[in-house]
Amino acid sequence: MDLPVLSLLTVNFGSFERIESLWRSIQKFPPSVEWEWIIVDNPTKKGGDGVRLDTFFEKEKRVHVIQLVENLGYGGGNAEGFRFCQGEILAILNPDIEVSEGTIDTLLSTLKQEKNAGIVVPVLKTREGEILENCRKFPSLWGLTTRRLFGSQILKKAQKEDIRETEWAQGSFWVLKRDTFEKLKGFDPRFFLFLEDTDFCRRVWKKGFRVLQIRAAVAIHSPNRLSGGNIFNALCRKTFWIHLESVVKYFWKWKGV
């Protein structure tokens, strides 16, 4: 097998069934270039999915499972997986993504053709066809707080442009050049979970690159939100407090910008 052009990278945290669904979609709609898939398993308190993943993918030469002994978070997990990626292009996908026909190839061609493209992302939809908001302006403290607690992820209007610039795109599905990820030194390790994608996009724009959403590329994504929902339920979640910590770190880092 030739060296991969594209490295798919997924960080897992207790989502084996979703990994299965993502795999079925990749098998159905694979990239046209040579590719590999690096899966990093962050263990939960009950243990990791590493053994199940190893067993499930034991005959798949394109798929490599990395079992971590401790939970490194989203950014840390991606950093560990990136060390094993061989492709010149990187596709970061969350377990709750499912690709559609032409999704990956459309993103790859746009990344290659568009001037100063830093990150390209698809339109995300629910299984029912509702459009999800995965591209936004950089957050204010008030706007971020109200959106996380009370906002809806469902968009009422579809984007009109074939290629749309956005200030930042959530990291559930990115395609970017390996060189870009390396130049920016990956995700900032101070963020364990949440806002590492927002911070990375800020640095992408600061380097003179663009973040683009591509209308012709569509993927399915679960609209579940770890840090939001009803305010009283949110306050009881560990992820809410992790998110709050990341908010403080983010606004401190970018204060005055």
Please describe what this structure looks like.
By secondary structure, the chain is of the alpha/beta class. It has a single domain (6-253), classed as Spore Coat Polysaccharide Biosynthesis Protein SpsA, Chain A (Alpha-Beta Complex), CATH 3.90.550.10. It is 35% helix and 25% strand. The chain is built from nine helices and 13 strands. It has helices spanning 16-28, 50-56, 73-82, 103-113, 141-150, 178-183, 196-206, 231-235, 238-253, and strands at 6-12, 35-41, 63-67, 89-93, 97-99, 117-125, 131-132, 135-136, 154-155, 163-165, 168-169, 173-177, 210-221. The strands form two sheets. Strands 1, 2, 3, 4, 5, 6, 7, 9, 10, 12 and 13 form an eleven-stranded mixed sheet that branches. Strands 8-11 form a two-stranded antiparallel sheet. Helix 1 (16-28) links the parallel strand 1 (6-12) and strand 2. The chain is globular and about 50 Å long. The mean pLDDT is 91.
The geometry reads as globular
The quaternary organization reads as single chain
Largest sheet: 11 strands, mixed
Overall CATH class? Alpha Beta
Compute the number of strand runs: 13
Order of helices and strands: EHEHEHEEHEEEHEEEEHHEHH
Mean of the pLDDT scores? Answer: 91
Number of helices: 9
What does the radius of gyration come to?
Answer: 17 Å
- CATH superfamily label: Spore Coat Polysaccharide Biosynthesis Protein SpsA, Chain A
- Structural class of the secondary structure composition? alpha/beta
CATH topology category name: Spore Coat Polysaccharide Biosynthesis Protein SpsA, Chain A
* Gap between N and C termini: 47 Å
Low-confidence stretches: none
Strand percentage lies at 15-25%
